[in-house]
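Reviewer 2 asked us to include a model.

Predict the structure of this chain.
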Amino acid sequence: MFKFLLKFVLVVGLLTAIGYAAYPPIAKKIAERNKPRWRTTTIENGTIIKVVNATGTVKPTKSVQVGSFVSGPIKDLYVEFNQEVKQDEVLARIDPRLFAANVARDKATLATRKADVLRVEALLQQARNDEARATALREENIDFIAQSELDQVKFARLSLEAQLTIANASIDQAMATLTNSEANLDYCEIRSPEDGMIIDRKVEPGQTLAAQFQTPELFVVGVGLREKMHIFADVDESEIGLIREAAENEQPVTFTVTAYPDDLFEGLIEEVRFSSAETQNVVTYPVVVGSPNPDLKLLPGMTADLSFQIRKKENVIKIPKSALRFYPPDKKYVHPDDHEIIDGTDFAFLIEDDDETDVNTQAPAAERIKASKKAKKRHVWKLDGELLRAVEVQVGLSDNRFSELIVGELDEDTELVTGQKAKGEE
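Predicted model (structure tokens):
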């Protein structure tokens, strides 16, 4: 029995000694396994470009709808789709027979009116001669001609003078009618008002036009398609102030179109229009961007995805936004000197995201302004041994990934914490 107890004591003692000796490395290994592992990112030096994105439609800088002033069947059609035309080039011809007949009729009427003027002038001259002879006889001897006869020749002359005035007015009227008929005959030839390209044709040979009630649209001529195109974008009211700033500073605009996904097109803001539009309680303003089109790649109606460059800063220290968004999950991971930061801030309830303009819209106006300014002062976290230390920073210009460091004790290549790694994450 004594030997058994002795062996038992020796075994227990041996196991205790082994456990005592093995505990520190095992405990260290467990602590090492359970300690938090942090994802980090590096501060960079580079360029930050703030942009506003929008979708727009490509349109010609000027498109002219060519119609018809006169009615009739289309006799000849001289242009096709996409054909380039010159100013005053004939695009189509309406059957001119009725209008040519009107011109011939009005020319005959004008000739009749002119002949009538000659007839009245001859009668007037005869009346003047009669009046002159009657006056001479009356002066020679009062008894040679009665006063009533003298009045007759006088008023006959006045009547013919009035008839001559009417005849001359009839000439003017006939000339105006002829001019109108000649103009209508000229309108039978549909001409291009400017140099351009036929981007739409809405008639076929033989088609009859009726222009009495509404001017029919025959062609659409795109002007200057090879020189420049316009992109019309609808920009949200919350961003129109930034767009106006970019326009004043002549900042560039880049965009892509689906037809050429690998090509980057550039342009400039030409106009920010004040004619707002409201769709489903969203207010937008039209912005016109001009872009060169020498290769004729930009076609009317294309959809463009635009990026308006608002501001650009080069050679600045850039803090990743993921570092600005990070917040320690527990106070135990934070250095004691920074515990008061974890307790909260007086404006945290106002900030919904890291963008300085994204502020809780439910807060009072004065608080929103205050929060927007205060949001530029943030904290980022870096490792100090096993604990996290806060660094207060003030940020400026931001893009979709980085924010400019304005104030803060950070250097290029500093490692900042962006989150806690999950188990199994490398």
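The chain has seven helices and 20 strands. Confidence is low (pLDDT under 50) at residues 345-354. We have added this to the supplementary material.
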